[in-house]
Structure to design on (439 residues):
């Protein structure tokens, strides 16, 4: 049996590992060659961690499973009747079982044109771009600007009061208002403004109200201005309009909602309003034989009847479940018991030494919650080496407020074509034109 898994995120990787060293062939396809620990992306955007701290090569993670192959490539479609996965480049892949685990993208609620000015933190490119934008604006303010321009340069807006927005706003405030305080001569980092905009009446709507109130108070302590019940009406190159008020800003970070990656159409399905594909409790897609969907892409009700949330722990548990079920099917022809999600707790961090944890029946806030958050996230980071490195960096940052990854990195300029050397003159134009055609 050949299982093709599209996406090596939390769900796809867990599924591949569960299928590792079993008597079947597995191919994992991803458009990038690394697994990304998405929950810590905001730490890359705020210069606390480097991109390589939260990304691990997929081949390295899966190298001990000899029955698992990795293919770098963009999946562009599925011929579900012929059971083939279509790739942008290279031959299609035939499958017996297909697992779609392509995750989600940010939802701009009908205003996709805002994405250009308000990137969401979904990949390393976004995180690096946000980091460069915030740091470059501070450099420009330091170089001298009139009062209005300086105020805009020193303002960052975060849209969305869920865990991503809360974590990002807290981290940006720590970076711009505290960590950089000693490094600038002309600007006062205390003038840096971080505004968190939420359309609903409170922060962290998926958590109990008192945790939202705690997050709001902690953010205020860090200097974040929280605007509740205020909707973003426009986003442009130099700021946003919020409930009729224009706020100039150098960076706008979007964290206001997600929708599934555009994969439903591969199967000739329309998906729900968030693009998710409805699956049965064994995670298979009705009327698409041999196709399964897991993680952020899947629409499945939990024990309370509400759709399971888009969380790494859901994706991971579904990946383990499905991998184990497919292996059992091959070994013993057994049909699996329905998938059941076990909630390990919801969490969000609010800057240095504060976090909230919601375990359902009881909750935790403050330093203890922060320590638990740090422990859990370090534990979940893929490689042992990374666990050690990240732990040391966090401890150092905690003690010093330092931010080690403050690099403004623009795309590397293209290399000019090499001047033809005397011996190669006759073949000179060929490499140059070949290079152009690849760009
Ligand atoms: C900023 C942020 C913070 C978060 N924090 C938390 C948290 O603290 N705790 C938590 O539980 N959850 C958190 N989440 C949610 C969590 O990251 C997701 O629920 C989880 O990543 C979903 O896993 P997945 O396997 O469905 O998809 P992903 O992990 O997103 O992986 C999808 C993979 O598919 C690949 N892919 C997509 N399309 C294609 C294609 N066409 N061809 C080839 N490859 C493709 C991508 O490159 C990627 O590797 C956070 C999310 C964000 C954005």
């Amino acid at each position: 049996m050949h299982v093709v898994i599209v996406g090596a995120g939390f769900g796809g990787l867990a599924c591949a590992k569960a299928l590792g060293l079993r008597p079947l062939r597995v191919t994992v396809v991803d458009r990038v060659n690394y697994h990304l620990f998405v929950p810590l992306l905001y730490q890359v955007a705020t210069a606390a961690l480097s991109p390589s701290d939260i990304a691990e090569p997929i081949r390295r993670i899966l190298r001990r499973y000899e029955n698992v192959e990795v293919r770098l490539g963009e999946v562009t479609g599925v011929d579900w009747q012929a059971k083939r996965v279509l790739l942008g480049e290279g031959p299609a892949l035939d499958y017996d079982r297909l697992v779609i685990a392509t995750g989600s993208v940010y939802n701009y609620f009908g205003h996709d044109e805002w994405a250009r000015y308000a990137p969401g933190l979904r990949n390393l490119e976004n995180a690096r771009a946000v980091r460069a934008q915030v740091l470059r604006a501070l450099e420009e303010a330091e170089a001298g600007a009139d009062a209005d321009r300086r105020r805009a340069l020193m303002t960052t807006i975060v849209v969305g009061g869920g865990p991503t927005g809360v974590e990002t706003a807290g981290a940006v405030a720590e970076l711009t208002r505290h960590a950089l305080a000693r490094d600038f001569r002309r600007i006062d980092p205390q003038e840096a403004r971080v505004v968190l905009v939420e359309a609903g009446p409170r922060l962290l709507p998926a958590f109990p109200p008192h945790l939202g109130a705690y997050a709001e108070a902690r953010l205020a302590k860090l200097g974040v201005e929280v605007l509740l019940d205020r909707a973003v009406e426009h986003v442009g190159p130099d700021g946003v309009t919020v409930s009729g008020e224009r706020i100039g800003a150098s960076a706008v970070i979007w964290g206001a909602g997600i929708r599934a990656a555009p994969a439903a159409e591969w199967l000739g399905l329309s998906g729900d309003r968030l693009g998710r594909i409805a699956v049965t409790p064994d995670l298979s897609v009705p009327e698409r034989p041999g196709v399964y969907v897991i993680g952020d892409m899947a629409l499945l009700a939990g024990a309370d009847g509400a759709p399971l949330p888009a969380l790494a722990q859901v994706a991971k548990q579904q990946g383990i479940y499905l991998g184990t079920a497919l292996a059992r099917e091959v070994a013993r022809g057994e049909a699996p018991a329905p998938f059941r999600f076990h909630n390990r707790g919801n969490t969000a961090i609010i800057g240095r030494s504060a976090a909230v944890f919601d375990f359902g029946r009881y909750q935790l806030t403050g330093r203890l919650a922060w320590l638990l958050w740090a422990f859990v996230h370090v534990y979940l980071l893929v490689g042992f080496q990374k666990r050690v490195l990240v732990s040391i960096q966090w401890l150092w940052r905690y003690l010093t407020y330092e931010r080690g990854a403050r690099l403004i990195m623009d795309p590397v300029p293209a290399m000019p074509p090499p001047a033809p050397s005397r011996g190669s003159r006759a073949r000179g134009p060929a490499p140059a034109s070949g290079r152009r055609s690849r760009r």
Observations:
- The mean pLDDT is 89.
